[in-house]
């Protein structure tokens, strides 16, 4: 590896401190849409209330981006294409528990998250112990899980009364001086962000995960159990997808068997946000902060685009934006790594 | 160790032929309709687009790349060709050339970003999957294109699109696969694809033009996506907005089931054709047996795991892992 150069202070700072760059981009996006609003180009006001309500769509995406962070950091081509299917299948399990078997909310939610963890463990076992390439293992389980989710209730969504009542979980919270922020941000997203951050930065396990992702041969010589660490990354991914499943069911007020796979699925935006957040696809590099700000950026960019175009045009431009952002951020990651050897 | 006569066919391909034979035997015995000319023709026709794109995808994956954008690329080709025929009354040969050109151009975007932009292929094609879908939706400019005259009958599955009962689209796939098989096995630049997938750095030092070969693999896949688009249009006079969604997964499944290693350096087009046949047979079987069609994806997933698992076991025995 090249030694880091120390010549261009400001540029190096902005490029390697990914959060700083993303916050700057976020400011650009917000100012840009404010200007468009001032010029009467938007179909609705781009105000604080709208931005706050847009956070609802950020919750599942950010959770799945955190899931991708864990598996991509674990290295050896780590990636999880199956997160969307896990959302579908764990969501159906949640629907069965709450809607048909009459379980109380809390045990059912814990059960759904555990289902996600088991599905993630299957991925982890295949990749870490049987040494399947992650792309293939999670492609296969993407197929399998989505199929099981579809046939589990004969293609029908579960939307009985108890499931419909879950929409109470998505109410807004009124805080002083702030617009109503969706409750899920505090009940689901924040705890997960804090837990993943603590695990990655304040625990020995986090050190092990980065070590394994950076160089698994060196990690083996350092007496780390590489397969066990990798397996746990996929279990973590599954658990987070399980949380996203609970959130998604509450948002739809219905457990849909295609919740995470309809259209191009949820894995795609999740991977995009992770890469934009500075997670390097070769492993060992990536932070919770970067992923969080990237999720915020993508969410508000999408929200703005919806207002900037009439009818379905806005969602079409979201596709373009997501693709362009993904390529540019990957190029940026490559350049930064080649020049400075790190992204934080 | 291996006998020269057996060299033309790899172990995984032999195993696939065996699995296919057993499946066909069981299906022939348990259903009355499997071995009818109509059903076999339908399987071959349904498999043709997957096989066509799979030929290019094999080359891409052999170079240790991947292309998940083919589903959206097919949508772009289809909507352009459909509009040309519908609005402009373009004759078939021109429409097919346009399809090839548009497909190759989209492949050029992918290949350029992978080979010269040096971005990871999964990231590039994940991004272009979105961008191509955007382009397709922009051209659609409505919900769908209907009432396309039957000018692509040669590529269709009906009477005009068959030769002695075999769909032309399938014959085309077989011929192209044979050419590709020869190219990758015997032609120097074709062998280079394997060298790049094995170790791109070593290949470059050995004088292989790595970037050019990578670019070629993606452009070829794009051109074949163009052909596959013609086959899809040939089935009916309707092109809808979500055309091609999920196609990339079917193609990758066919390639992987056919024994191509996802980490590059190993695999054959023959295996891909057999893999595509297996996917088509399973789809047909699930329908004939009256099972829910969603079970198809479960079987495909299990087949991928088994195929790759067997391959991993053999690699371990050879000591290359």
UniProtKB/TrEMBL annotation, chain A:
Locations listed in the record: Cell membrane
Major localisation: membrane
Topological relation to the membrane, as annotated: Multi-pass membrane protein
Keywords: Cell membrane, Membrane, Transmembrane, Transmembrane helix
Cited Pfam families: BPD_transp_2 (PF02653)
InterPro entries registered for this protein in UniProt: ABC_transp_permease
Signal sequence coordinates: none
Transmembrane regions: 20-36, 48-71, 83-103, 109-128, 135-152, 181-200, 231-253, 259-281, 288-309, 315-335
Name the UniProt record assigns to this protein: ABC transporter permease
Organism in which the protein naturally occurs: Tenggerimyces flavus
From TrEMBL, chain B:
InterPro entries: ABC_transp_permease (IPR001851)
Annotated transmembrane regions: 40-61, 68-86, 92-115, 122-140, 164-184, 215-240, 246-263, 270-289, 295-313
Record's keyword annotation contains Membrane: yes
Membrane topology term: Multi-pass membrane protein
Pfam families: BPD_transp_2 (PF02653)
Keywords in alphabetical order: Cell membrane, Membrane, Transmembrane, Transmembrane helix
Subcellular location: Cell membrane
Protein name per UniProt: ABC transporter permease
Organism whose genome encodes this protein: Tenggerimyces flavus
């Amino acid at each position: 590896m090249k030694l880091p150069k120390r010549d261009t202070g400001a540029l190096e700072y902005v490029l390697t401190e990914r959060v700083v760059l993303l916050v700057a981009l976020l400011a650009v996006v917000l100012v840009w849409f404010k200007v468009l609003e001032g010029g009467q180009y938007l179909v609705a006001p781009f105000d604080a209330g709208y931005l706050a309500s847009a956070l609802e769509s950020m919750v599942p995406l950010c959770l799945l981006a955190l899931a991708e962070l864990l598996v991509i950091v674990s290295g050896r081509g780590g990636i999880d294409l199956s997160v969307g299917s896990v959302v579908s299948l764990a969501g159906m399990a949640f629907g069965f528990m709450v809607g048909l078997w009459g379980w109380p909310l809390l045990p059912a939610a814990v059960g759904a998250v555990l289902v996600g963890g088991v599905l993630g463990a299957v991925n982890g076992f295949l990749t870490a112990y049987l040494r399947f390439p992650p792309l293939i293992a999670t492609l296969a389980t993407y197929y399998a899980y989505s199929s099981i989710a579809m046939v589990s209730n004969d293609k029908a969504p579960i939307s009985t009364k108890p499931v419909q009542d879950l929409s109470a979980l998505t109410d807004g919270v009124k805080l002083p001086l702030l617009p109503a922020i969706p409750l899920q941000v505090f009940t689901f997203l924040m705890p997960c962000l804090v837990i993943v951050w603590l695990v990655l930065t304040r625990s020995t396990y986090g050190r092990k995960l980065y070590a394994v992702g950076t160089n698994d041969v060196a990690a083996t010589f350092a007496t780390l159990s590489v397969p066990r660490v990798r397996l746990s990354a996929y279990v973590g991914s599954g658990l987070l997808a399980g949380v996203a499943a609970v959130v998604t069911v509450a948002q739809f007020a219905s457990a849909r068997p295609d919740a995470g796979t309809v259209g191009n699925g949820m894995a795609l935006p999740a991977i995009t946000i992770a890469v934009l957040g500075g997670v390097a696809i070769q492993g060992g590099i990536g932070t919770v902060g970067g992923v969080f700000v990237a999720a915020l950026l993508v969410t508000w960019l999408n929200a703005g685009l919806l207002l900037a175009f009439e009818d379905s045009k806005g969602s079409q431009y979201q596709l373009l934006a997501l693709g362009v952002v993904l390529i540019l951020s990957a190029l940026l990651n490559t350049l930064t790594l080649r020049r400075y050897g790190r992204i934080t | 160790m291996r006998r020269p006569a057996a060299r033309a066919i790899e172990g995984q391909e032999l195993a696939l032929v065996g699995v296919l034979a057993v499946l066909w035997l069981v299906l022939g015995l348990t259903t009355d309709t499997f071995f009818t000319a109509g059903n076999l023709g339908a399987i071959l026709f349904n498999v043709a687009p997957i096989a066509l794109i799979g030929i290019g995808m094999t080359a891409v994956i052999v170079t240790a790349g991947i292309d998940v954008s083919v589903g959206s690329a097919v949508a772009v080709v289809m909507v352009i060709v459909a509009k040309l025929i519908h609005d402009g009354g373009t004759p078939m040969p021109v429409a097919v050339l346009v399809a090839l050109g548009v497909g190759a151009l989209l492949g050029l975007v992918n290949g350029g970003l992978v080979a010269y932009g040096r971005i990871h292929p999964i990231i590039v094609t994940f991004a272009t999957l979105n961008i191509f879908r955007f382009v397709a939706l922009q051209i659609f400019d409505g919900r769908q294109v209907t009432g396309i005259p039957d000018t692509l009958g040669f590529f269709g599955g009906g009477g005009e699109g068959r030769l002695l009962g075999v769909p032309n689209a399938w014959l085309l796939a077989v011929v192209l696969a044979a050419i590709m098989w020869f190219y990758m096995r015997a032609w120097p630049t074709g062998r280079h694809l394997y060298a790049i997938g094995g170790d791109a750095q070593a290949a470059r030092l050995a004088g292989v033009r790595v970037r050019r070969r990578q670019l070629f693999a993606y452009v070829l896949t794009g051109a074949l996506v163009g052909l596959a688009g013609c086959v899809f249009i040939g089935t009916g006079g309707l092109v809808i907005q979500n055309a091609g969604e999920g196609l990339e997964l079917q193609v990758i499944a066919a390639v992987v089931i056919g024994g191509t290693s996802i980490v590059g350096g190993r695999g054959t087009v023959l295996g891909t054709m057999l893999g595509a046949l297996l996917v088509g047979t399973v789809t047909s079987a699930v329908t004939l047996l009256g099972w829910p069609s969603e079970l198809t994806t479960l079987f495909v997933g299990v087949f991928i795991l088994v195929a790759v698992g067997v391959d991993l076991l053999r690699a371990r025995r050879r000591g290359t892992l």
